[in-house]
Design brief:
This protein has eight helices and no strands. It has two domains: 98 residues; 89 residues, no CATH class. With 223 residues, it is mainly α. Helix 1 runs antiparallel to helix 2 and helix 4 crosses helix 6.
Length: 223
C-alpha cells in the first residue's frame, strides 16, 4: 500500500472516531442538562439515542477492524514480496558465484594444459629439456624424461580433481594405482621438499597433495 494512502486512511479514521466521540458527548450533555429535555418523551428520546449511539459504535468498530485487517493483509503481502525478492537475490548470487568458480576452473585448466604442452615438448627434445630445472645431479637423461612424464601424469589427476571429475576417494584411488610405478614413486619422493615449499598452506592443490601423500604411503606400506 502506498504511504500516502495509509496516511489518508489513518487521518480519516481519526477524524471519524473524533467526530463520533464529540457528537456522543454533546448529545449526552444536551439530554441531561437542558430543562426542555427533562421529560418522559425526552427520556424515551435519550434511550433511542443510546441505542443509535451503540449502533454507531458498532459501525465504527467494524470500520476500525476492517481497516486493521486490510492493513495487516497489505503488510503480509509486502513481507512476502520482500522475502521473494531476497530469495531471488540469493539465487542470483549463487548463480554468479557458480559462474565465477567455473570461469576460474576453466582458466586454471587452460593454464595447466599449456604447462603440460611445454613439458611434452621438452620430453621430446633434449635441447628444450635443458631449459627446465633438473631434479638433482643424479637424475639425468632418460630418468629425467621419466620424471617429467610422471609429473604430467600426476598433473592430469590434479586437473581432473580440481574440475570436479574426481571425489577425494576417487582421486586417492587413482593415485594409488599410479604409484604402482616404481619410477613414479621415486619421482614423488624426490620432489617432496620442493612441493612442500611451493604449496605450504591450504587450498585445493594442497588438499590434492595431501591425498596423493596418503595414496603414496598406502602403496609403500602395502595397504
Amino acid at each position: 500500500m502506498p504511504r500516502s494512502r495509509r496516511v489518508q486512511e489513518a487521518v480519516t479514521l481519526a477524524a471519524l472516531v473524533t467526530a463520533s466521540c464529540i457528537g456522543s458527548v454533546g448529545l449526552t450533555l444536551a439530554l441531561t442538562h437542558l430543562p426542555a429535555l427533562q421529560s418522559n418523551a425526552a427520556a424515551n428520546a435519550g434511550q433511542a439515542f443510546g441505542s443509535a449511539a451503540a449502533a454507531s459504535s458498532v459501525v465504527v468498530l467494524f470500520y476500525i477492524a476492517r481497516t486493521f485487517h486490510h492493513q495487516g493483509k497489505e503488510s503480509r503481502m509486502h513481507r512476502e514480496l520482500l522475502e521473494a525478492q531476497r530469495l531471488e537475490l540469493a539465487m542470483q548470487r549463487q548463480v554468479a558465484e557458480g559462474q565465477h568458480k567455473s570461469a576460474q576452473q576453466a582458466a586454471a585448466a587452460a593454464l595447466r594444459r599449456q604447462h603440460q604442452s611445454l613439458f611434452r615438448m621438452a620430453i621430446g627434445d633434449p635441447l628444450l629439456m635443458d631449459c627446465w630445472p633438473g631434479y638433482g645431479p643424479d637424475v639425468t637423461g632418460d630418468r629425467r624424461r621419466q620424471y617429467m612424464y610422471a609429473n604430467l601424469v600426476i598433473s592430469h589427476h590434479a586437473m581432473c580433481y580440481e574440475l570436479g571429475y574426481y571425489t577425494d576417494d576417487e582421486v586417492e584411488e587413482a593415485l594409488f594405482h599410479t604409484f604402482g610405478s616404481a619410477v613414479t614413486k621415486e619421482f614423488w619422493e624426490a620432489t617432496r621438499s620442493s612441493r612442500d615449499s611451493s604449496t605450504p598452506y591450504g587450498g585445493g592443490m594442497r588438499k590434492f597433495y595431501d591425498l596423493a601423500e596418503s595414496a603414496y604411503h598406502r602403496h609403500v606400506s602395502g595397504r
